Amino acid sequence: MIVDNHGRVLDYVRLAVTDRCNLRCFYCMPEEGIDYLPKKQLLTYEEMERMLQVLAGMGIRKVRITGGEPFLRKDLLAFLWRIKAIPGIEEIHITTNGVLTAPLIPELKKLGIKSVNLSLDSLDRERFFKITRRDELDRVMATFYALLQHDIPVKINAVVMEGQNTEDIIPLAQLTEKYPVSVRFIEEMPFNGGANNHPSLTWNYLRILDELQEIYPGITKAANAPNATAEHFSIPGHVGNIGIIAAYTRTFCGTCNRIRVTAQGGLKTCLYGDDVLNIRDLLRADTSDDSLKAAFLQAFGNRAKDGFEAEDHRRFLLPVFQSMSTIGG
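-> structure tokens emitted (329 positions)
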């Protein structure tokens, strides 16, 4: 078991397998995109597998595959089978925008994928295009229905943005009436790849909840799973549930059990902090497993108390305007 310097157990790694994405969501990156990393700078599948073997031996039990858009990386399904075979890894989850996912869902079911987080900020085709700069809503919805058909638990992640998609809060919430889906509304964060879209955070946790309560006065607080980032709510008569993630106000840091590894092998012990370890360079220097464990333990033993402390300790004390596709979803 891994325990950080604040007594929090770490058992969950979010692993970005690519920094590439086939959408251009304005809150994640500029319209022209970002400068993608050369392939040689990315972790290879073999390097990722060895890293996960070491982390699993230390106590990591849950892996979430992210990007960029993970299904843009060639041979990802074969890599998922290799992760599944690692002793100690009990759960594999995936975060995807759904554009390429639908045809792969039967094999994801065979793999035993625990859940899929589907990024979906609008159910309106025009607003979806305005946000993502791509006309791909039909393919995303095909993925949504295919996941439900194959009984793979689905969580919808919707970033709430003033002047962009607040009209979608209630339509997205209505999905929970008919479908066993968790719809999670996320406060906008400043990770936009330098597009200077400063989030005003007018639509914070409380305002999102007020909007839901106006239409659903019977909405009630539900139990949260341990280490949950979302506060969950139930609506009478609905088979699914609602979640609200205070990603910008950062109210869940005290129970955070996750670490992030970027596509180039940077270890982040907090979303808002700098990389604290270059795993890629250690792996390519033929570092022993024991030395890798020691490096991990040192990083985990110097973890920020919360996202505000991590942001204060960044090397460049400026607002954070990285693309989420380079951070790791």
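The mean pLDDT is 91.
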